[in-house]
Amino acid sequence: MGRKIAVAVIHGIGKQTADFSGKMTAELTRNFGPEMASDVVFRTVFWAPVLQDAEDELIRRMKQGGPLHYPGVRNLMIDFLADALAYQPSSDDRRAYDGIHAVFAKTLAGLATEAGSDAPLCVIAHSLGTIIASNYLYDLEVDPFKRLISDEVRELIHDTPLEQGHTLAMLYTLGSPLALWSLRYREFGRPINVPSPHLASLYPQISGEWVNYYDQDDVVGFPLKTLNAQYGRIVTRDAAVNAGGLLQHWNPLSHLGYWTDRDVVQPIARKLVEVWKAINAPEPDETA
User: Fold this and answer.
1) Which residues partner with 5 through β-bridges?
2) Under-50 pLDDT residues of the chain
3) Domains and CATH numbers, the chain
4) How far apart are CA 248 and CA 244, in angstroms?
5) Is the alpha carbon torsion for 31, 32, 38, 42 positive or negative?
6) What is the pLDDT of residues 248-264, one digit of tens each?
7) Beta-ladder partners of 173
8) What pLDDT was estimated at residue 64?
C-alpha cells in the first residue's frame, strides 16, 4: 500500500441518488491496477438532500394552480435554475449555501481521515457542482482567516492541508456553466488557482491541471479559457467531447452524458495514475 490520492466527486442537476458517481468511479478504478486501486479514495459531495424538501414543496404548490404543460421541461428548470438560484446566498439568508458547503466540508474531512491529511486532492464536478466547487475552494483560497465562511461551516473544517485546500492538484469540470456565472463579476471574475499555490511545497513532483470538458451540443457547458487572461492562464485546456449515448450525444441531453464518456474518464484516469506513480516513486539515494 502506497501514498493515497483523495478524490471528491460533486454532482450537478437532476434527481440524484447517493451512488450517483458509482459508474464513473468503477470506470476509473478499472484503469488503476491492483496495486493502485486501494490507494485512490473516492468520496461524494452529495448535496441534493439540502434542497430536496424545498423543491418538492415548490412542485406541490405549483400544481395547486392547475395543470401545467411540459412537466419534464419544468422539472428540468427546477433542477437547474431553481437549485442555482436557491444556492446563491442573499444578504439575509444563506441557509442553502452554507448547507451545501457543510456537505463539502464533511466530504473533505472524510477524505483527510481515509486518504491522509496531506493527500493530493482531485475534484471532479459536474454542472452546478462546478459552481459549488469553485465557490467553496475560492472561499478557502482567498480568505485564510475564514471570514467569508460561516461559523457553521468553519467548525467542520480541520487544520489539515487537504481540508484547507492546500493539496488541490487536479480539477475536472464537466458541462460547466461557470462562464454564465462569470457575468456576475467585473471582467468575468477570477478563477481559483489550480493547482493550489501550496502544492509545490508539499509535492514538487506533481504537475497539476484543470481540464474543462464540454460538449458542443450541451447548452449548459461552455469553454472557460477564453473568458479572460486569468482563466486562459489557469485552465489547462478546454476539452470538447461528444458525451453520451445514442439518445444523448447529438442534443442538449449530452449534458447528462459526461460521467461514463471514455473521452472524459480515460484522461482523468491517466492523470491519476501519473500522480500516484509520482508520489510513490522511491526516494533518491542521497548517499549514492
Assistant:
1) 40
2) 288
3) 5-279 (3.40.50.1820)
4) 5
5) negative
6) 888 887 888 999 999 99
7) 125, 212
8) 83
> How far apart are the C-alpha atoms of 25 and 259, rounded to whole Å?
9
Can you give the three-state secondary structure of 149-205, one letter per residue? CCHHHHCCCCCCCCCCCCCEEEEEEECCCHHHHHHHCHHHCCCCCCCCCCHHHHCCC
C-alpha cell recorded at residue 4: 493515497
How far apart, in whole angstroms, are the C-alpha atoms of residue 111 and residue 5? Answer: 9
Per-residue burial over 161-199, b if 16 or more Cβ lie within 10 Å, else e, is bbbbbbbbbbbbbbbbbbbebbeeeeebbbbbbbbbebb
pLDDT value of residue 287: 52
- For residue range 151-170, what is the model confidence (pLDDT) as tens digits? 999 999 999 999 999 999 99
The CA–CA distances, whole Å, from 238 to 90, 140, 209, 217, 233 equal 32, 25, 11, 15, 12
